Structure formats: C-alpha cells, structure tokens
Amino acid sequence: MNGSKSRPDRIASHVRTMPPSGIRDFFDIVSTMKDVISLGIGEPDFVTPWHIRESAIYSLERGITSYTSNLGLLKLRQALAGYVERVFGASYNPANEVLVTVGVSEALDLAMRAILEPGDEVIFHEPCYVSYGPVIAFAYGKPVPIQTDPQGGFVLTAAQVAAAITPRTRAIILNYPNNPTGACLPEAELKAICDLAVKHDLIVIADDIYAELSYDHPHTSAASLPGLKDRTIFLHGFSKAWAMTGFRLGYACGPADLIGAMMKIHQYTMLCAPITSQEAAIEALKHPDQDINGMKAEYQRRRNFIHASFTEMGLPCPRPAGAFYAFPNIAATGMTSKAFAYGLLEAEKVAVVPGTAFGPCGEGYVRCSYATSMDQIKEAMVRFKRFAHQRMAAKA
Amino acid sequence: MDELLKLLKKNALETPEDLAKMLDLPVAAVKAKIAEYEKSGVIRGYQAVVNQDQLDINLVTAVIEVKVTPEREGGFNHIAERISKFEEVQSLYLMSGTFDLLIFISGQSLKDVAFFVSDKLATIPGVISTSTHFMLKTYKDHGVLMETEDEYERLKVSP
Predict the structure, then answer these.
(1) CA of B25 to nearest chain A CA: how many angstroms apart?
(2) How far is B30 from chain A (nearest CA, A)?
(3) How far apart are CA B38 and CA A206, in angstroms?
(4) Which pTM value belongs to this model?
C-alpha cells in the first residue's frame, strides 16, 4: 500500500459511518435521463417575485457587497421580528433574539451544536426531512426518531413523545407542515407535546419553514404557545413561501441565551449570511401576503388535483394539509418504494422520491412534489396511473 | 373573482373534470356553474391568445383616441355602441382624461385603417376629433408574454 488516498481511518468515524442521503443515488440516475417529468423536486417551481429580484439587483448596483453584522442586517432583523409577531404571534427583540442564517439548514445545525453535549438525545418524527438525523449525529447527539402512523395521517402524538423521553433527552424537533408527508399537526396535539417539553425541561425546535403553506387551518407555532417561547428555537426562512431557495436565507428566533450561543458558532464558521440575499429579504417582507397568497392558491389547487387523482386511481393518500408534497401509498402494486420509483422512472419517465429516503417508515410510500406546473402534474398523473394499474394487475 | 372563473381566464381549455379536481367540487357542479356563466353572459367567449407577429400575415393594429360630444339622453353609450358594431373595432373603452373613447382596430393595411378612420369614424355625428397610433410590436397581450424566455432548469430531484 502506498499513498494515503483511501484510508478510511482519516475520516472521522461519526462522518464515515453516516450513510449518504437516500436521494443522492436516485438523483444521479434521474439526471442522466431526458424528458423526465419530475415530481421529485423539493423547491417551488415559481421564480422569486420580480420586485424581490429587482431589489437584489439594485443593491448590487449601489455597491452593497460587504459583510454584515454577524446577526444579520438590523433592518432585516427588525422586519423579521415584525413579521414573526404578526404572523406567528411570538414577539422577539431584534437586537439579540433574531439570527439571520444561511437557510434553515444552517440554523438547525447551529441549534444542535449550541445545545447538545455528546450523547444527548433529540427526538424527531419520521418520515422527515433528510437532514435531521445526520445533523444531530454530526453534533455528537443521538437521533431518536419516532415513526408516525400513516393511519393517523403521519401526525406525531404526545403519547409517542412521552414514551421516547429519557433522562438524556435535550430537545424535540417539530416540522409541520411536513416534508415529505404534507401533514399538519393539530393544535391540541402540539399543546400536549409542548406540555411534555415543559415537564421534562426540553428545548423545542420548531422548523416552521412551510408554515405559510397550510391550506385547511392556520398554522400554530410552538413559539406562540404560552410559556413556550423561553424554550423554543423558532426556525423559518424565505425558501418556500417566497420561492427564494437559491438565496439561501433563513433565520432563527429564540431566547437571547440560545440565540447568543448559536451566534457564537455562526460568527466563527459562517460570519454572516450573504448581504445580497439579506437585501432581497428586506424587500420580500414589505408586502409578504401579496406574494405568498398567489402562490399558495396555486399550490392548493394542485394539492386538490393530485390528491383527487391518487384517490381516483385507488391509491390511498392522506390528504396533504400543507407544504407541497403528497405521500401516496403504493403498497397495492406489491413493490417496495425504491422498486416503484425506479420502475416508474424507467417505464414512464416520471421521477418521484422513494418514501424510505425520509426514514424506514416511509416504506410503501413515495413522495410526489406538486411544486411543478399543473400541466406537468396532469401528465404525470396519467403516467403514474398507467404504471400503478399495470403493476396492480400483474400482482393480482 | 370566483376561483372557477380565475382558472378559466388563465386557461379556457381546462376540462370540467380537471377543474373539479382542482376546486374540490363534483364535476356536475363545475359543468352547471360554467353553463350558468355562459347563459348569464358573464363568460362571453373563449379565444386563443395568438402572437400575430409570428405569423406571416398582413395585419395592422391601431389605437385611436376619440373625442366625442355626449348626448343629452344616454351620454356616451349611444355613440360608443354605434362605433363598437364595426367589424374592424376589436376593443372599445370609455376613458377618463383628455379624450373619451379608446378604440383598438385592426385592418389588413395602413390604408385600410386610415380609410376606416377618415370615412367611417370621423364622419359619425358627435365625433369631434381622432388621434391614431399604429402598433409596432406586441410584447405582452392578455397577460401573456409574447417571447418565450429560456427556462432555467432546476435540479431534477432535491430534498
């Protein structure tokens, strides 16, 4: 043996043992194929509203290209505090309780690194966004996933949380409206879970990135519940509701000590979020409802359409109450999630993501994003139906 | 505006079946509602939005500002209705400001349009003056851009 190229021991064990994202290999195959209709995309198909893009351009024209304060531009933090108070009903001091980050992804990472001692446990619900487990593990914490029940619409229950709490539990992550299931958390269940957080002195991480895209009931954030603000890290950003994924702009609100700790890591590792994105975000917060409501109405029509289509083709699909994902059950085809997704891609050139990418309890399901045009969704449903019915007939 | 109308305004070719799914309504209800709109005249027709610049045809479009004398009975209505009946007139609006009627007309040639203005429009009793502007290029019509921009392609799968 010469050289040192493939010595596994020079990769830290907690990184080495982490499997790559289940989406990755699937992505590699899809990206080699032409003319694929993709329902596999976890970002809006809308372009960022023009007035927001224009203000980013204008900031560049004025030569605004510097670093900002570590916390983010004060003007943006003030606007954020105003927005969070109006929409979520929780008030934060822009001076020390709001931190602007590079997407919610960074904010989540900061939160984990700020609060976890090695071996501390963090409870979260599955199916879930692909990064929760890994981010906890990279912060030397222990991921404690709870498998939510499809019969219950993938809603986390307080009873499940209570059973998972141990003396090492430090925090619980809540992400509703949910990626990948589209589920929302009923307020009573949220309250019961938060009561447990108080009782066991846990921190609640409220990943409310899809909050605006709640179709049937207004979203309630843990941060707005009485007595919860002091133990809640509220995470939100511009990617989904404003269609600003590539701007990479998120933020965290929380009690000053937690935000201060997160800021310390952010300051040494990221310095600040890009100023162009921050300028764009200031503009985005000027007339947020106008931008969001138009897109939301379109998502809602697509939600109705895609849910009706799955129901019509005889595949059970919990009615998505939020976000822009449907999570139909394809077990009737006799195929695993992965085999179904690969088969559908091969036979009909429609890309969906196997449910197992979001946790083992996603087996039997596929995630279909409806953040794509209605025309594409219509054609995708025709092809989906053809494939599913063929496989169901072959099985019978 | 009613959601159904909004969807039809955006795409009149949506089928009742698809509309029903989008609006979470029974197909029969959607069909009945459309029939009702057609009968009551809320929906007055269905047309394609065509980029005429792309076609090899002779078509001249002009916008004409017209000043008229309103009548004692009926105000602007009588004269506006009279003008609107000409086949050449595509759209006609009553306006506030320095003129009264705004007319969109089209013809096969500049001469056609000029003839219409001098011979038909200007001679109508009550028309005081006309000012004709010829259209050179259409960038957007009925909310639809006439140029297709290259679409930026997103990653095909993302978390």
Answers:
(1) 10
(2) 14
(3) 49
(4) 0.88
